[in-house]
Amino acid sequence: MDWSNSYAFFPVSFRTSLVVVVVVVVVVVVVVVVIVVVVVVVIVYLLLLLLLLLLLQSIQTRYLCYGCHPILLFVKKIGHDYKLMSSSLQRLGCPYGYYGNC
């Protein structure tokens, strides 16, 4: 007996429905995997973007507070009110009364 075509014992309608079920299951699994991968990639991208923004904000605040930012140098040269400059820097997260290192 030749067993190479074992589906030959089943009726044609059963074989067709089996193929349809297998194809539907494979398509559903592929769609679910693609959706999960896309969601994970988007979440990782957003987390990396948030980390980058926090890092840039930290660098900018450190540069403004503890470095000599060109704006601070210009404000100092024109003799602008240091209290106003201090309150602006304080809003950026600098320590109270700190005017930068100019």
UniProtKB/TrEMBL annotation:
The keyword Transmembrane helix applies. Keywords: Membrane, Transmembrane, Transmembrane helix. The chain crosses the membrane at residues 20-53. It comes from the Eukaryota. This is Transmembrane protein. It comes from Elysia marginata.
